[in-house]
């Protein structure tokens, strides 16, 4: 068995006892260690191999503080030689310095037992493999099977590298498919015709186990409020759960799909001035900065942890111009956009306690939007 993220932080001493009492065996995604990884080069490299192998294969859980015989859990052996915070910091430091590219989404949870503790380490399956162990001047790639860790062959490495391309291609394909459906009124929710649409897709990098909890999303539906809206109607639909912006016609909605992807829409992002059509880039930034942190909190609440990929699109904007502020128009007219749709670059958002950092994670997309207006790059303080 492996502990999924939704259960992971609730792991208890009783759960660990059941592993021993049930004589649970190690699997491709579960490994027991009787002690913590020792200090020194050998212990560090063993830890990095174990974590990278899980990430490169199917993901899973390492449990430090359970003895095993022939791969079967036999006894809880609490760690006592160091406090749990010190061990977590040491292992997190090793992850940052010893694995390339970094593995995102690794989580650690300790369970206090008598005078010691058991440390569980959850490692998600990576969507961007392979991850290389780089320690003591040696580089290696590792995979995992039911009996342990082994070094990947050249053929296996080629297959791993191809997965990264596949994930990116799937996300872009999903975005284009949804834009086509929205434009042609083929979505479960039809938006009114407006002058330019803002469409945001927020996708978990690591797919959830099964369908997400739509009931929990409904209970906290304020976290899925439509962009730039003060009123909405929540409802379940064929795609999952949605909040639909209030009004005679649908001016936008937020859709949560069963696989954890969020789609948010807003119509009429273009404004007219002196017979020209403009997209106010600062307004787009403000909409994103007020909405995306809420959507991320929703995903966290329904056990869909980060990192996440944000895909931001501007639909039906041909002939308009991107402007940072009205003051810009006093000295220069921005270039006209020739494309019907602007598909801004994907952005990686890493979990953070400081939710104001999320807007900074959107820099690749905001840079591209600012570039469309003739600016060198996005600046949080420019022309405020």
Automatic annotation (TrEMBL):
InterPro entries listed in its UniProt record: Schlafen_AlbA_2_dom, Schlafen_AlbA_2_dom_sf
Short name of any one Pfam family annotated for the protein: SLFN_AlbA_2
UniProt entry keywords in alphabetical sequence: ATP-binding, Nucleotide-binding
Annotated source species: Caulobacter segnis
Entry-linked PANTHER family: GLPR-RELATED TRANSCRIPTIONAL REPRESSOR, SCHLAFEN ALBA-2 DOMAIN-CONTAINING PROTEIN
Any one Gene Ontology molecular-function term assigned to this protein's record: ATP binding
Name of the protein described by the UniProt record: ATP-binding protein
Source domain of life: Bacteria
Schlafen AlbA-2 domain mapped to chain residues: 26-149
């Amino acid at each position: 068995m492996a502990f999924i993220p939704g259960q992971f932080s609730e792991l208890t001493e009783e759960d660990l006892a059941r592993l021993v009492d049930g004589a649970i065996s190690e699997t491709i995604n579960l490994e027991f260690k009787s002690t913590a990884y020792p200090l020194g080069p050998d212990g560090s490299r063993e830890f990095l191999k174990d974590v990278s192998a899980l990430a490169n294969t199917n993901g899973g859980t390492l449990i430090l503080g359970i003895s095993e015989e022939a791969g079967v859990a036999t006894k809880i052996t609490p760690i006592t030689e160091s406090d749990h915070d010190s061990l977590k910091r040491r292992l997190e430091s090793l992850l940052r310095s010893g694995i390339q590219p970094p593995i995102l989404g690794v989580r650690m949870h300790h369970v206090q037992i008598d005078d010691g503790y058991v440390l569980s380490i959850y490692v998600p399956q990576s969507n961007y493999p392979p991850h290389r162990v780089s320690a003591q001047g040696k580089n290696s790639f590792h995979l995992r099977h039911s009996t342990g860790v082994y070094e990947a062959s050249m053929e296996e490495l080629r297959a791993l590298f191809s997965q990264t391309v596949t994930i990116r291609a799937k996300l872009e394909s999903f975005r284009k498919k949804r834009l086509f459906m929205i434009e042609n009124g083929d979505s479960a929710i039809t938006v009114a015709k407006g002058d330019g649409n803002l469409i945001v897709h927020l996708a978990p990098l690591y797919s959830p186990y099964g369908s997400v909890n739509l009931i929990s999303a409904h209970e906290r539906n304020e976290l899925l409020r439509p962009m730039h809206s003060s009123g909405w109607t929540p409802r379940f639909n064929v795609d999952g759960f949605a909040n639909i912006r209030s009004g005679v016609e649908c001016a936008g909605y937020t859709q949560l799909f069963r696989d954890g992807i969020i789609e948010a829409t807003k119509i009429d992002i273009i404004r007219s001035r002196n017979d020209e059509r403009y997209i106010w880039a600062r307004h787009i930034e403000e909409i994103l900065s007020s909405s995306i942190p809420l959507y991320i909190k929703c995903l966290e609440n329904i056990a869909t942890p980060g990192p996440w990929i944000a895909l931001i699109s501007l639909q039906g904007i041909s002939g308009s111009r991107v402007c940072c502020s009205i003051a810009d128009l006093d000295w220069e007219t921005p270039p006209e956009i020739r494309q019907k749709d602007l598909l801004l670059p994907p952005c990686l958002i890493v979990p953070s306690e400081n939710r104001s950092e999320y807007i900074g994670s959107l820099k690749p997309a905001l840079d591209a939007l600012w570039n469309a207006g003739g600016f060198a790059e996005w600046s949080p303080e420019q022309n405020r």
